[in-house]
């Protein structure tokens, strides 16, 4: 969103080369006949937006958010707030102040203010230090006696986050306005972590925060959560698992995703839909990239003698699946597995990659006992050096499971899901994309 807090985040992400879309409920209001923006920026025109206690609660509904109507006073983040949040953002605040060029207004702005002088004298008597207020104002542009700040500065004398919105755009971010957000799709899916606590903090903690915030937004209708097949369990005797079977995750990641699902079911007051995709592959995915890299180097590994079975879904197919859930009352309060409906052998995937890369890799079957030693070694390395590693005990449990098969009949019946599977072509496109990105 192009809000006061959102715009700096959008700018930083766009600057770092990320694809950013800023979505704003309000308009990109412009001055009219030289007049300030006025009350049309404010939610419910200042008349009815009151708290239960009667305090006017206002915010600017426009590109730039409340920074378009604020009073421009600058306060350093109080220690109490920092402690409560558990995030010390003082260095960032300092940097931002320097970047914006915070100023105090020159004396001419308050020279004739008798009330202020009386306050100063009283404060002095009481021994309270009274300092000039720092402002997000370019004092040279500020007009003496204007006082329109809170209805939008007519002189453009204040810093507003529109500057960050524009900067984000210059780095390639997109802005759409008059576009209220009423659905949220989120993942909260940290797949590697140093320990279980970190994994739960990310996957469950973020989910809980999103739910708590969403519950308070009246216009928000639907939450779609991308969970994971890992929240269920591997299949026994190659029988696909159904959504209503109790989850029995084998990894800490799976457990955290299941806990996140439970948090949604218990706490979400909006319509929610939980999607459990199986292994996702396609442009931008970094997990399958490792397999592509190995095959590209002429190697192809299979762990154990058994050619294990699994489901897959191509990223654009998953997008189609999500679209079926959006605004669909049949999808409300439901959990769905999402796969392309095919059962693949590991060797099918490796062959498709080899074909796409035009390679004839050396096929090596690694005994399970040796693989286990490698996974344990990776785990130990991660613990010793406090690093998130891909090769770890958790991954081992996932890889060594007999099969990961999910039943999608529920999605077929309720959503009308008709997957279009084309592993070979999709793997070819994925390889093309990896090459274009310079990853291969
Ligand atoms: C009159 C006034 C005076 C103030 N004076 C000061 C001051 O002097 N100093 C100071 O530090 N702070 C001041 N503030 C507070 C400061 O402006 C806010 O703390 C700050 O702007 C909050 O930033 P934010 O990003 O959290 O929210 P906001 O700036 O309110 O941004 C929220 C954005 O989200 C958009 N939005 C909301 N719902 C949706 C939706 N469903 N879909 C899409 N977009 C949506 C809104 O339109 C808005 O652009 C003042 C605020 C007001 C209202």
Name its key features.
440 residues, alpha/beta, Rossmann fold, 4-stranded parallel β-sheet, 3-stranded mixed β-sheet, 15 strands, binds flavin-adenine dinucleotide
Describe this structure in words.
- It is a single chain.
- The protein has helices at 6-15, 79-85, 90-100, 114-126, 162-170, 196-215, 252-267, 287-296, 315-325, 346-357, 368-385, 393-400, 409-415, 423-436, and strands spanning 21-23, 103-104, 134-135, 174-176, 183-186, 222-226, 271-277, 279-281, 299-303, 309-310, 312-314, 334-338, 344-345, 362-366, 403-404.
- It is α/β, with parallel strands linked by helices and 440 residues long.
- It has two domains: 1-72 and 151-180, no CATH class; 183-436, NAD(P)-binding Rossmann-like Domain (Rossmann fold), CATH 3.40.50.720.
- The strands form six sheets. The protein has a four-stranded parallel β-sheet, sandwiched between helices.
- Helix 10 packs across helix 14.
- The longest helix has 20 residues, at 196-215.
- 28% of the residues are buried.
- The mean pLDDT is 90.
- The structure holds flavin-adenine dinucleotide.
- Flavin-adenine dinucleotide binds at residues 1-6, 23-26, 58-59, 61, 65-67, 69-73, 75, 150, 180-181, 219.
- Residues 1-6, 23-26, 58-59, 61, 65-67, 69-73, 75, 150, 180-181, 219 line the site of flavin-adenine dinucleotide (FAD).
Task: Show the helix and strand layout.
Blueprint: H1 6-15, E1 21-23, H2 79-85, H3 90-100, E2 103-104, H4 114-126, E3 134-135, H5 162-170, E4 174-176, E5 183-186, H6 196-215, E6 222-226, H7 252-267, E7 271-277, E8 279-281, H8 287-296, E9 299-303, E10 309-310, E11 312-314, H9 315-325, E12 334-338, E13 344-345, H10 346-357, E14 362-366, H11 368-385, H12 393-400, E15 403-404, H13 409-415, H14 423-436
Parallel strand pairs: 1-4, 5-6, 6-7, 7-12, 8-11, 9-14, 10-15
Antiparallel strand pairs: 2-3, 10-13
Helix pairs in contact: 1-5, 6-7, 8-10, 10-14, 11-12
Bound molecules: flavin-adenine dinucleotide (FAD).
């Amino acid at each position: 969103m192009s809000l006061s807090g959102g715009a700096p985040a959008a700018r930083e992400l766009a600057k770092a080369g990320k694809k950013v879309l800023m979505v704003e409920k309000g308009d990109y209001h412009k001055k009219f006949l030289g007049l300030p923006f006025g009350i049309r920026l404010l939610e419910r025109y200042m008349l009815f937006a009151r708290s239960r206690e009667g305090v006017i609660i206002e915010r600017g509904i426009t590109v730039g958010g409340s920074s378009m109507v604020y009073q421009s006073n600058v306060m350093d983040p109080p220690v109490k707030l920092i402690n409560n949040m558990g995030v010390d953002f003082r260095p960032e605040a300092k940097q931002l102040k320097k970047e914006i060029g915070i100023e105090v207004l020159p004396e001419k702005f308050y020279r004739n203010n008798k009330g202020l002088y009386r306050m100063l004298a009283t404060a002095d008597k009481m021994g309270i230090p009274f300092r000039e207020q720092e402002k997000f104002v370019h004092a040279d542009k500020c007009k003496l006696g204007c006082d329109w700040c809170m209805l939008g500065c007519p002189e453009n004398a204040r810093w507003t986050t529109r500057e960050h919105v524009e900067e984000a755009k210059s780095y390639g971010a997109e802005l759409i306005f008059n576009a209220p957000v009423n659905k949220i799709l989120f993942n909260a899916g940290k797949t590697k972590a140093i320990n279980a606590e970190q994994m739960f903090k990310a996957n469950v903690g973020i989910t809980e925060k999103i739910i708590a915030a969403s519950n308070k937004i009246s216009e928000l209708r639907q939450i779609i959560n991308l969970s994971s097949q890992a929240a269920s369990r591997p299949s026994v005797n190659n029988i696909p698992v159904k959504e209503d079977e109790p989850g029995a995750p084998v990894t800490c990641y799976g457990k955290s995703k299941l806990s996140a699902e439970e948090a949604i079911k218990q706490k979400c007051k909006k319509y929610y839909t939980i999607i459990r995709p199986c292994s996702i592959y396609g442009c931008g995915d970094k997990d399958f990239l490792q397999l592509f890299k190995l095959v590209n180097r002429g190697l192809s590994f299979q762990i154990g003698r058994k050619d294990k079975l699994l489901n897959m879904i191509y990223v654009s197919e998953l997008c189609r699946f999500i679209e079926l859930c959006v605004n669909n009352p049949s999808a409300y309060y439901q959990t769905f597995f999402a796969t392309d409906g095919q059962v693949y052998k590991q060797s099918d995937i490796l062959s498709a990659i080899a074909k796409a890369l035009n390679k004839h890799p050396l096929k090596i079957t690694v005994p399970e006992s040796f693989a286990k030693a490698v996974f344990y070694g990776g785990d130990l390395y991660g613990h010793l050096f406090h690093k998130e590693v891909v090769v770890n005990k958790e991954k081992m449990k996932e890889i060594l499971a007999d099969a990961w098969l999910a039943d999608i009949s529920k999605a077929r019946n309720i959503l009308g899901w008709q997957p279009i599977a084309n592993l070979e072509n999709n793997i070819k496109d994925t390889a093309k994309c990896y090459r274009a990105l310079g990853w291969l």
